[in-house]
């Protein structure tokens, strides 16, 4: 069924739901590359007006990718919870925006199982940055493994001490540096230089030893392909969290070499290890706008709607952590600091609305039109929006992945400026270890020799 | 040398006690200290300088005659469908397709060898000839033509190799420049290459450069992956990199 809208005497026609969503999306290079973006500002606002008038219940009857063709669509439809949807069932997309802005946090949080990702994407397309911040800040999502992530007033940091050759001393120095700056409560997570299972197991052993020697109430992760992690678990490696990059269509996930059944199997394998002390959220996912187009698996759907669909995949597996790697993919998807800023806040808001412990890798690559000022702006907005966690990379410079993320200092600054704290178990540990008292000396309890640095 | 340095050197094992001592274990920006919660001025400006260099590196181009001379073999030069750098950055689809009118030699069953600029030409110019020289004698199949490709993405290798009729392709391509590294080379290996292959169907060796993976190790790993791919009839997630550390030849 086509949608129509007249703006200033011009009548715009949008053939179907996915076209309406794409044309209503604020401008970004990836949608232009895919050929789905609005061709003028007038067409975009016409689509936004038509979208605002669309009943939310319409999403129950029209999918952007056919049910028969895509296991992610099947997951979204089959898992939709009508009872949770009931409070907003009568609303249009525009009415839903007003409802979200006026509702109290408990009501917004309770909605999650009743929301389809396309509904969250739709309402975000007619929100300003301030709306994205305010609505996200209402959502409460708490997860647990060896500590508690996402409590109100907290901001957690993933300690990301990557090294170009996975050198154990180099990694250990990065870990210690991050701990000294209060990072690591979300996870201590390494992107390995290779997917070689022996090398991955060496890093897993090393990170587990560091966590054990310092008795840190946190979890570790090596972000290898899920099938490599499964092999490592079979061989007895100390795996806390299973990591995987995921996307919002079946074909995107195929391009990543995964499926819903592989993720389910991996989760069951990790649960069987029983390594969590406070909870059993054992999965860690990364996403990012543009991955479906990059894999030519987007079905003509705009990149932000597909990104929201990836969150339906994530929530199926009760993850401890999910983050969009918003500026990593490059300027062909998000051209500059302005596009990265909006996308980061959209991803965070949609992830939270769908009930995820949503973090953001606030980042950019050197071929994007962005710099540290853009990252400071996004980080500050996200911290106000109650982002669950951000990355901590030594000096903001990832020497393995060749991109810039947030530094340990940035995380500390965001916490200080907004009165945010680390996860409570981790905060108690920081105090116990005497961290933060001295800007030059390493506290005796964190002796580098304990983790092999001599 | 002052007395403190002297004492440190005479100690058999010098465990770090100061935060800044961590710097000797990694090139990452550790031990920066802090100004309040922020990075001190000197470290801040170091970062800004590195970013300025990396921004310029994105716009570097291959010196094709010099590269061909360093390779020392007959080469074929091709362009992708992206006419210039800005289009290349905004239109990766064009970087994956050969320009119109390209003809390539036919070499069925060979390993096609593609040397491509990618996102930064500096590392390709510096390291690809040395890696290629070491890889050639280790190939499990006959070497195909060496192709230099400009404004190229990894998947351009599929288009090239399909036209050559190659059994496999090794694409040596410039990686995204980072702040500490503007000369990193990546190797992408694809079995039965043809247009439409996905990244999950390739194996990758990254960070080939001084301070990252050395030339000998990179060539040995590429040869190992090619042999394994030949046995399996596939690359990508189906081919697990289980090359034991001991299989690397002595330096």
UniProtKB/TrEMBL annotation, chain A:
Note on how the cofactor is bound: Binds between the large and small subunits.
PANTHER family reported for this sequence: ETHANOLAMINE AMMONIA-LYASE HEAVY CHAIN, ETHANOLAMINE AMMONIA-LYASE LARGE SUBUNIT
Pfam families to which the protein is assigned, alphabetical: EutB
Principal place of residence: other
Family membership noted in the UniProt record: Belongs to the EutB family.
Enzyme Commission (EC) number: 4.3.1.7
GO biological process: amino acid metabolic process; ethanolamine catabolic process
Cellular compartments annotated: Bacterial microcompartment
UniProt: substrate binding residues: 158-160, 191, 286, 361
Protein name per its UniProtKB record: Ethanolamine ammonia-lyase large subunit
Chemical reaction(s) catalysed: ethanolamine = acetaldehyde + NH4(+)
Keyword hit for Lyase: yes
GO MF terms, alphabetically ordered: cobalamin binding; ethanolamine ammonia-lyase activity
Cofactor field: adenosylcob(III)alamin
Pathway note: Amine and polyamine degradation; ethanolamine degradation
Automatic annotation (TrEMBL), chain B:
One function term, GO molecular function aspect: ethanolamine ammonia-lyase activity
Native organism taxonomy: Bacteria, Pseudomonadati, Pseudomonadota, Alphaproteobacteria, Acetobacterales
Cofactor note: Binds between the large and small subunits.
Residues that bind adenosylcob(III)alamin: 154, 175, 204
Catalytic activity annotation: ethanolamine = acetaldehyde + NH4(+)
Subunit structure: The basic unit is a heterodimer which dimerizes to form tetramers. The heterotetramers trimerize; 6 large subunits form a core ring with 6 small subunits projecting outwards.
UniProt name for this protein: Ethanolamine ammonia-lyase small subunit
Enzyme class at the top of the EC tree: lyase
UniProt family annotation: Belongs to the EutC family.
Keywords: Bacterial microcompartment, Cobalamin, Cobalt, Lyase
InterPro entries linked: EutC (IPR009246), EutC_C (IPR042251), EutC_N (IPR042255)
Organism: Neoroseomonas lacus
Annotated pathway: Amine and polyamine degradation; ethanolamine degradation
EC code(s) of this entry: 4.3.1.7
